[in-house]
Amino acid sequence: MFRRLCAAVHNRLQVTATLGHRRTAAPSCPHFLGFVKPYSASSVGADDPSSLTASSLIRSCGISDRAALCISKKVQLDTLDRALSVLTLLKDYGFEEAHLVRLVDRLPRVLVMDAEKTLKPKLEHFRRIGLVGTALPEILSASPDLLRRSLEKRLLPNAELLKSILITNANLVNAIKNSLWLMGLDIRTKVLPKVDALRAHGVPDDVICVLLTRYGDALVTDTNRFNEAFDKIKKMGICPKKTTFARALGMLAILPQKKWEERLETLMGLGWSQDNVLEAFSKQPHIVWISTEKTRNTVKFLEEKLGWTPERTVKNPVVLLMSLEKRLMPRHAVLSILMHKGLIKTGFIGDHFLISNEKFMKQFVTKYQEKAPEIVEVIKGVKSYFSFEEDRLMHGNWAKESTVDIILLFFKILALSHSAIPKSNKKIGGFTYEATFLVVAREFDFEFCKRTQSSVFIREKYSSSEDLIER
Q1: Which residues of 29-140 form beta strands (DSSP E)?
Q2: DSSP result, 280-305
Q3: Is the pTM of the predicted complex or chain greater than 0.90?
Q4: Using CA atoms, how far apart are residues 336 and 346, in angstroms rounded to an integer?
Q5: Could you tell me which of 91, 90, 100, 99 has the C-alpha nearest to residue 138?
Q6: Which residues cross the membrane (predicted)?
Q7: Which pLDDT band, with edges at 50, 70 and 90, does 238 fall under?
Q8: What CA–CA distance (Å, rounded) separates 236 from 278?
Q9: Which of helix, strand or coil describes residue 448?
Q10: CA 294/CA 322 separation, integer angstroms
Q11: Which residues contact 108 (CB under 8 A, 6 or more apart)?
Q12: Between β-strands 446-451 and 456-460, what pairing exists: parallel, antiparallel or unpaired?
């Protein structure tokens, strides 16, 4: 699909060029997929201003042809000397080609700044507050507007005010990394009033520090919205002296009301009460940022595979944040195999999901891999596990239906499809799950397969009936 998409775009570009149509919003530098040929000094006429500028950039700054072409689009010949001074200075402060291209693309005027009088003092300031190594070019190329701010009127006062709250340079750097715009705002009017209000309500400085370091957006949001979020969190009973309070306020203050209502609706539609939702949020505020699809899939997995009720899930709401495919399902599969073989006691507790990968591997995989070698592949996600001994599966409502034999065969198809998918061959294309399903289905005399998001339709190969059996 991706190759076809690339080919289609490439063909579209060729047709556009042939017809002489002007493309709007053309990229300022060659596309990374290679639809445009890399720049070469010999490919542009010697009298082309861009060529002359790019050649000077290559000679003076030692950057590649492509980076030089990108930057040359933003440089005027009469300011070339100043641009060269700026680029040389930035390289001295650790800016790589990618940083330079991004910075110039977002803030072209940086090339006409006075390198020594204007730019260097700001770079030194950022270094002094702790932006060292790759942090400096990464942050400034991502948020170049900081270089437009006055050093005396904005950057220095903001650093002092933030440092009075955050105490250490390390906290200040983390705050800037998590909120790139923070240093460029008017901290005195945007942030300090909310900090004072939090202190007046008994929120300690260490909690405020967490809020500012990790969730700076919350402190510059609309004051009314901030106050509403604060009141709502207090009603939930979250203790203002705990860091959970900072996480909850940080999430709720920037979360649109519509999204909050959607999260309530999603979980309540899965059988949760409003109290369940609020309790889970109070323990793990980040659950409100999980997509609706992931929330549904995870809750259904916990209910169907583990028999967890909403009350049980609320005890460990962090599981809702975990990857279903990379953590929850593989660990459940490993433990199911071990329980089925009698290697561990039956039962499943949330702690199995919470322990580190290293501890889980040591406690359940390395320890039992000789007696159950399949768990090595299962934990890697190479194979899925399907047990015909599982009570919840083998004694479901389907066992009472008249088509029980056909449904049992269908389960076998699913089992084989999960465990016998051939390895992908990159030269001829990979095998899809659907293709494998059809191959296995034919072995059980089924010829028709149609899939929807939640159902599979099959038809017996030699059946005279045209009815589809849905399961």
Answers
A1: none
A2: HHHH-GGGGGS-HHHHHHHHHHHHHH
A3: no
A4: 8
A5: 99
A6: none
A7: very high
A8: 7
A9: strand
A10: 10
A11: 74
A12: antiparallel
